Amino acid sequence: MEILTTICARGGSKGIPGKNIKPINGKPLIFYTLQLAQHFKDTFGSGIVLSTDIEEIKAVVNSFDFDIDASYTRPANLATDKAGKIDVIKDILLYSEIKNQQQYDIVLDLDVTSPFRNLTDLNNAYELLLAKPEAYNIFSVSPANRNPYFNMVEKTENGYFGLSKKGSFLSRQSAPKVYDMNASFYFFRRSFFEDNLQSAITERSIVYEVPHTCFDLDHAIDFDFMSFLLANDKLDFEL
């Protein structure tokens, strides 16, 4: 299997300005993703390519001794808030195939803003995908704190509020198990892109439940919390 690892790091960020290269525990945030990508490459021989529109991010990536292709520059139409990540990944996949004159069977996308994962997670998820040949993809999830069958509501057509999903469950534990997408990593088969799918959630998707702390940076407080965990050695796994 030929594998391409993509690292997407757009320059613009309104919630946490400059977050991809913002220092966290003495290193730029992107370092943790670069390091894991290199470990995965050393194990599986995959290529690694950076997708960014900012030269400063390229410079930071190139300052480390990792085998990363940072030659690609993301086009302006794929560097906006409204650009879908699937289109971003597909564009850099096609670029890499032309540049390297080879076709990739699997794409692994590592999200810079959700770095709490390790090589064991990637290995286990990859094995799950290989064991289910009909699956388009697999993505990382964490157990959800709220459950739409029990304690999540939405507005109904009559203007009142009811459960988001119907059921007669008297406790969250008895309701069907649901998950949060933690945006940490995604494996895609090439068929995902060949069939022009636009969402990571498909009719043939499977999930890998991360067995430890894992979350992405949505708000400034998330960055502070992540910094605290790293600086004080509070993670419940080996990064």
Layout of secondary structure:
Layout (H helix, E strand, L loop, with lengths): L2 E6 L14 E2 L2 E2 H16 L2 E5 L3 H8 L22 H16 L5 E6 L7 H12 L6 E7 L9 E3 L5 E3 L15 E11 H5 L10 E5 L10 H12 L8
Overall tally of structural domains:
1
**CATH class categorisation:** Alpha Beta
Q: Order of strands across the widest beta sheet?
A: 4-1-5-9-6-10
For the termini, the CA-CA separation is 26 Å
What value does the average pLDDT take? Answer: 95
DSSP helix fraction:
25-40%
Relevant terms:
about 240 residues, alpha/beta, Spore Coat Polysaccharide Biosynthesis Protein SpsA, Chain A
Structural account:
The protein is of the alpha/beta class and 239 residues long. It has one domain (3-143, 178-231): Alpha-Beta Complex (Spore Coat Polysaccharide Biosynthesis Protein SpsA, Chain A), CATH 3.90.550.10. Helices cover 29% and strands 21% of the residues. The protein contains six helices and ten strands, in the order βββαβααβαββββαβα. It has helices spanning 29-44, 55-62, 85-100, 119-130, 190-194, 220-231; strands at 3-8, 23-24, 27-28, 47-51, 106-111, 137-143, 153-155, 161-163, 179-189, 205-209. The protein has a six-stranded mixed sheet, sandwiched between helices. Strands 2-3 form a two-stranded antiparallel ribbon. The longest helix is centred in the first third of the chain and has 16 residues, at 29-44. It is globular. The mean pLDDT is 95.
